[in-house]
Amino acid sequence: MPEEWGAGGWYFEAGEQRTALPYSFVIGPGGEFGLHAGDWVPLHGSVEGWVEALALADHARRCARSTTVLTGDAVEGLDLGGFEPVSEVAGFADAWWRGPDSLIAIYRGEAELMCAPQCRTATVYAGLDAWGLRGLETFPGSR
């Protein structure tokens, strides 16, 4: 059942929670996927973007030679020069960036919703080759 929260419009829960969390996963009035806990923070521009982000995280985790997690202010210190946004994830508060040999996932949504900047997180997946960076789109005849 959709619920109307404030003047923002109608929201749909994106499935039932399986653990105790202080927020709900919802689909917003424009099809965005995000978090709701009194306030609304869209994470991705679409449900498809959220699914792409989950798939990319699984792919990057399997292919990276090293993984580094940064939190809090260190996230804002990341140099994204030479990186391009991964448009498929339709990132808003949570986004992915692709560089010459790395993928970076930046998660700000939960920190924004909870007013807890120390909860910002970035995961740097480094040491990726062409397959690790782009998957099947690097091979002729794919897609």
Order of helices and strands: EEEEEHEHEEEHEH
Low-pLDDT stretches: none
Distance between the termini: 36 Å
| Strand neighbour order, sheet with most strands | 1-2-3-4-5
Average residue pLDDT: 87
The largest sheet is: 5 strands, antiparallel
Strand proportion: 25-35%
What Rg is obtained from the alpha carbons, in whole angstroms?
A: 16 Å
Number of strands: 10
What key phrases describe this protein's structure?
five-stranded antiparallel sheet; single chain; about 20% helix; about 140 residues; alpha+beta
What does this structure look like?
- The chain is an alpha+beta fold and 143 residues long.
- It has helices at residues 47-63, 73-76, 109-113, 130-134; strands at residues 3-4, 10-13, 24-27, 33-37, 39-44, 66-71, 84-85, 94-98, 102-107, 121-126.
- It has a five-stranded antiparallel β-sheet with strand order 1-2-3-4-5. A five-stranded antiparallel β-sheet has the order 6-10-9-8-7.
- The protein is built from four helices and ten strands, in the order βββββαβαβββαβα.
- The protein is globular and about 45 Å long.
Helix-strand layout with pairing:
Elements: E1 3-4, E2 10-13, E3 24-27, E4 33-37, E5 39-44, H1 47-63, E6 66-71, H2 73-76, E7 84-85, E8 94-98, E9 102-107, H3 109-113, E10 121-126, H4 130-134
Antiparallel strand pairs: 1-2, 2-3, 3-4, 4-5, 6-10, 7-8, 8-9, 9-10
